[in-house]
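Inputs:
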Amino acid sequence: MAVKANKMMLTRIIVIMLSIVILFTSISAVRLTKIMIIDGEKMQSLASEQQLYDTLVSAPRGDIYDSKMNLLAKSDTAYTIYLMPNGIKDLTKEKQEKVKTQIATGFSQIFEIDFDTAYAYTEKQTYYVIVKKRVDKSVADKVRAFLAENSDLGLARYVGIDETTKRYYPNENLASVVLGFVGDDNQGLSGLESYYDSTLTGVAGRVVAAKNAHGSDMPFSYQIVEEAKQGNSLVLTIDSYIQHIAEKYLEQAVEVNKASNRGACVIMNVNTGAVLGMAVKGDFNPNEPFVLSEADEELLSKENSTVTRNELLNKQWRNKAVSDTYEPGSVFKILTAAMALEENVTKLDQRYNCGYTIYVAGQVYHCHKKGGHGSLNFKEAMIGSCNPVFITVGQLLGTSTFSKYFEAFGFSKKTGIDLPGEATSVYHKQDKMGPTELASSSFGQTFKITPMQLIAAASAAVNGGYLLKPYVVSKIVDNEGNIVKSTEKTIKRQVVSETTSEKLREILKAVVEKGVKNAYVAGYGVGGKTGTSEKVAEMQATGERGLYISSFMGFAPIDDPEIAVLVMIDEPRGDTHYGSTVAAPVASEILSDILPYLGYEPQYTEEELKNFAVKVPNLTNKTVEDAKKELSNLGLTVKVVGDGENVIKQLPVFGETLNKDGRVIIYTTETEDVDTITTVPDFSGMTVGEANTAAYGAGLNIKYSGNTTSGSGARAYDQDIKANTEVTLGTTVTIYFREATSSD
Amino acid sequence: MNNAKYYNDSLAYDFELFMPKTKHSPRAEIVKMPKKTNKAARRAARSEVSKTTSIVLLGLFLVSMICASIAIRVEISEVNSQIVKEKSNLAALSGEETRIDMDFENLMSYKNIEAAAKAMGMRKMDKSQIIYIRVNDTNKAIDKNGNVLTAENE
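Outputs:
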């Protein structure tokens, strides 16, 4: 009996023990399953965090070059200086004050900020505050030296230096709206930096190293390094020189004409679609994209100002040539003419009568010329930019044909240029286009397109009819210079025939030769068309009158065009607002600089050669009589200062050029007692003859810029040395002339 | 041990079966070793010394290896920290080089050159001062005797 009881006891004990073992094993298994399988990844990462040191290495951003491989944007190491204000609070009151004062003194000297601003950083209720972002090594070194000098106060515990990257734009404002800029995390925020962000960014690398018992990493022994792969670089179609020329003259025009809504200029190769220059003024410095221009700061600081800083910043970053639409005005007549000639609706010698007004479906339209042009042919209608003739031609085309060509010229779709924020055009769709809409559209009003759409379409009209896709990036290269991708010209379609294109070139050449003389460039055949469009919607919205957009679309050399230039000045508020007087001179200046640069040799006419400037000869040590004779033979006049026999000094100096009848001052004695300083007069509004007289009276020489051929009626609108500046007698002042007559 | 009680005269009861048996330890077999000669004894002694020396030398070798290993690790660690330092210097100098390059590019920009030229009183060339020279497309060189060498005649 006792034996049986023992056996039962034993069985019970075994069962209980087994149950306990199974229970604990099950709990452990469940727990292990949770840790190893369900939370496996989390646990693994926690373990890795504890045992490994894993750091991402940001990839250097790719560079941006112009078409001649001049650097436009590059990234490299910079430093962020930060402060840990809460750390200072652990000190005694007395020591706190000493540390704060010392830090504020150091920061104010190093970062050139006032003491109070610097002191305010130390007062912040935070663990971490950035004092200065993206400073150069020289500044970081100054901070290091400052910390070392104050090691007794232990400032290094409260001030830190972090390594970061900085994007450099060495040419500052040059092509800023095209290039764009990057944000704090090195990501592209606008322009090409944004459009090609993934190409430029590259692939980040990483360093994984084991941590030792103290938690610090053990490089080399237990370390895996994945090198960061630098982003690819962009090679643009833009040429820095052409871009500089475009920006220089555009800026001058915006300033002289007091344009209140900026200006844009696009220069494109009509045969490839490559954009050689794209300028917008006012623009910004991409090294400091959040800094407003002085004028904008002034506007913002006005008491009754309705604009915000963000609005002004967005405006200065905006690429007006791509992201803004406008009514092209008479420049669009190039396209209406192309449609009409292609459809045989008109001929170059087809005659029309302009009686100043024309009625379409009860709506009256006026010609810009008071009294009308009278009888004229189609070519003359283009030269005179006659609205009634183009309305007539438009009506003959009809809404269906007009809309077909409007679409074929690419106005109904974006151009597809590789820039962000391309705007969509606003226009009358065929089913909603009546005779009045067709009438106003025929001369470029009541619809809105981008300048980029216009230059692409107008280029198609003169290049044989081929509509091309414009582009600004010609190549993408890796960091070893291998070409990853290159852009070829893309023909979208042929819109008009070569014959029509040739006729258009003939018309546009005549427009500049006989109409828009301000676009004339000595030695080169230039063709083009001006435009002056009213900003009807803006005037209705604001109640303000006289808001215009002045533009000019030019081509050169017109017989076999390569270059197209579109200049557009938004809301000029100066003496004039016509495309022929505001925009055409800009295109002329640009073309006269870039055509020789592109290798086009000028072919001067007899009249142009007659107006050529004369090189001043070397007169030093010659007798006064010989000098006078030599200058007279060159068509120059002379003024003798002193009573000596020989020339000891001359103004202008040897090699300088003067216009015919220019004056050379020769000095025969040392002339300390002679007044050699004169004041530059204000030449604005003067004709060539008046300017010559004024310059002569002031003892100055002048040089002409712009069209000053006989009978041009040109008047001065700007000068390179400002009025009332004191200069030496004989100094040459360049005066910019333009035709005073108005033509849209 | 008195075993007399296990002896009796009866044949039926043999108490001798229960008599404790005396364990006889086997007699050790004495093997006579050959007598050592003096020469052999010396050899044995030498061998003993050699063994000890080997052990000592092995020990020393192992200690020296451990020391060398530690020294090499220290050296590697120092070189590594030097590499890290030099890499950091290189990165800083590279950044500085870029900054200087950028300053140079900025100074050499068309805008700045034009402004500097204007400040020095220089002017844009007049059209009359530009002479266009037509260059023959063929590459040629002139030797010291004045002979014209082209790709065709060379």
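Remarks. The interface with chain B takes residues 70-71, 74, 76-78, 136-138, 163, 168, 170-172, 174, 219-220, 240-241, 244, 248, 522-523, 596, 601-602, 604, 612-615, 656-657, 703, 732, 734 of chain A (CB under 8 Å). The mean pLDDT of chain A is 90.
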